[in-house]
Amino acid sequence: MIRALLRHPPFPGHRKPIAVAAGLQLLAVNGWQADLDPPEAAIVIECLASGRIAPADAAAWLSARLSPCTAPRISVPRIRIRETLTRLPLRGPGGAGMSVNGRMVARFSDRAATAIFLARQETRRLGHDSIDPEHLLLGLIRVEDGGGLAALDRLGISPEALRQQVEGIIGHGPGTPDGPIRPSRPRGQKVLNSALPEALAHGTTDIRDAHMLLAQFHDDGPASQALGRLGATEERVRDTVTALRAQASRHSDV
């Protein structure tokens, strides 16, 4: 019902709050209440509205937050959708994540944070001035024992072959930049932000390096094209990441 109201809103200017309120009211009528964290719920609704996660993924996220009603009335949280802000690691793992309205709603795992740190190194090495998806991919394949690298390995793709493909496309820039290196807009920031709905689709707000690999397919640029040329299509990568997660269970960073 929430998805239907998002797609066919009776009041277009207020489609997200109305969809959430109607969904929560339907749950209450049937004896359920949802324990929602407003910033996290805002991201899920935004991803569902934009099609970045499927209704089944949103339903799985919501079902884990339901409990029987213990009071005759429930409160409907007021949800404001604002831009997701990404805080990147400066010196490796620790403290990096995404926030909405100043509140941290998701964190990068140590390996994901390491991948971003290495992506910054790759950007400097290649003489570029901002982090594009291609630099993020080059950082990902340098993370030892990473879930993204494991998925590519299972698909028979060597890091060196992928590196040659990517570097052959983006080439080298004029030199090492003097100032700080940040994600490019819109492409670099888009791929980083897209890692969150990929994590939510797996039922977590812990953004792992495999989610960052999947996020590459949210950008139709040199990185996703290089992956596809080597046989790592979006469908094959998704299936492989899912299989690795099932195999590794709780002890994996996939």
Shape: elongated
Parts with pLDDT < 50 across at least 5 consecutive residues = 71-83
Architecture of the largest domain in CATH? Answer: Orthogonal Bundle
Question: In terms of structural class, how would the helical and strand content be classed?
Answer: alpha/beta
What's the CATH first level of the largest domain? Answer: Mainly Alpha
Radius of gyration: 20 Å
Q: Report the sheet-strand fraction.
A: 5-15%
The whole-number mean of residue pLDDT values reads 81
Description:
The chain is an alpha/beta fold. The chain has 2 domains: 2-68, no CATH class; 85-251, Orthogonal Bundle (Double Clp-N motif). Helix content is 52%, strand content 10%. It is built from 12 helices and 8 strands. The chain has helices at residues 2-7, 15-29, 38-50, 55-63, 110-125, 133-140, 147-154, 159-170, 187-201, 209-215, 222-229, 234-248, and strands at residues 32-34, 66-68, 85-87, 97-100, 103-108, 130-131, 182-183, 206-207. It has a 4-stranded mixed beta sheet. The chain has a two-stranded antiparallel ribbon with strand order 1-2. It has a two-stranded parallel ribbon with strand order 6-7. Helix 5 crosses helix 6 and helix 7 packs across helix 10. The longest helix has 16 residues, at 110-125. The radius of gyration is 20 Å and the shape is elongated. It starts with a helix and ends in a 6-residue tail after the last helix. Residues 71-83 have low confidence and may be disordered.
